[in-house]
């Protein structure tokens, strides 16, 4: 049984919005399709009709085009309750088609007026048959068009949700970037103040690293994309400050090929991984440790590894808000084409970030 589902709510969808302009806007290939269907109907009728083929052909084409014209004018597929405008359109099309059929056959001399008006019962049976046939065919077309409208609405809704999700992620990123780790800045400024009194040359070096860090991070507050090279410079400034605070307890190194420095990537992701390594790996360890940052191409993917030789993964890990935030951003930006993995090493831990590239 043909089911016509209600349309998504839209303004003006409860009424058929009748207009002759609707029929004029129908693509030409649909009229060719109507003509072909009419030919098929005429062919089926001719199988049991002893008259020449011109008789069922005129009947099928006249009523078929008339019904298609009225259905196009009413556009029942745009109504939330399509049955009643569809039935009205088919009735009007049947009446119009039968009138045109009679006029053509009388005018061409195929039949006389007495043939029709003396046998009104036969005319009524033909009209009923034509009406039911037109209703069935039109309902199929209306069902297909309404299904297309549903699919378009579904795709539009999915695209809107994806856009809203990306906007939410972008807003969260801007908020995160705007914070610029206030406790990190306060601690650094306190160290600068202490060094000014005890070791002015070291204070100047730390202040220089802090300035480089801010110059690298602040421009990214309004950007949604950066390069690996800019992330490396930002991370290097951050690690230089941490090293001055921790002294010999913290060491770091980079292994990044120069040809990868212009590769695009989301901002602040590398810095977040390094901050996580410092906070959970190096700082809690009595002996400190080393942070190694490596980058390479694996096919069409950029693979970044952040390894620390600190105290390793905690047996009772916390919520991992920073890593969870990175995974949510990756999912919103790339879907399954990107991932973040964290695994234990001996000693320490390794965070692996995999991103798609345009190359």
Number of strands: 7
* N/C terminus separation: 52 Å
SSE pattern? HHHHHHHHEHEEHEEHEE
Strand order of the largest sheet: 2-4-5-7-6
> What does the overall shape look like?
rod-shaped
Average the pLDDT over all residues and give the rounded result.
77
Assembly classification:
single chain
- Helix-strand category: alpha+beta
What summary fits the major beta sheet?
5 strands, mixed
Determine Rg (CA atoms, Å).
Answer: 37 Å
Count of discrete alpha- or pi-helical segments spanning 4 or more residues:
11
Fraction of residues in helix: 55-70%
Strand content: 5-15%
Write the SSE topology:
Blueprint: H1 20-24, H2 28-46, H3 54-74, H4 83-107, H5 113-117, H6 120-179, H7 182-198, H8 200-217, E1 226-227, H9 228-246, E2 250-255, E3 264-265, H10 269-282, E4 289-298, E5 301-308, H11 321-334, E6 339-344, E7 349-356
Parallel strand pairs: 2-4
Antiparallel strand pairs: 1-3, 4-5, 5-7, 6-7
Helix pairs in contact: 2-3, 3-4, 4-6, 6-11, 7-8, 8-9, 9-10
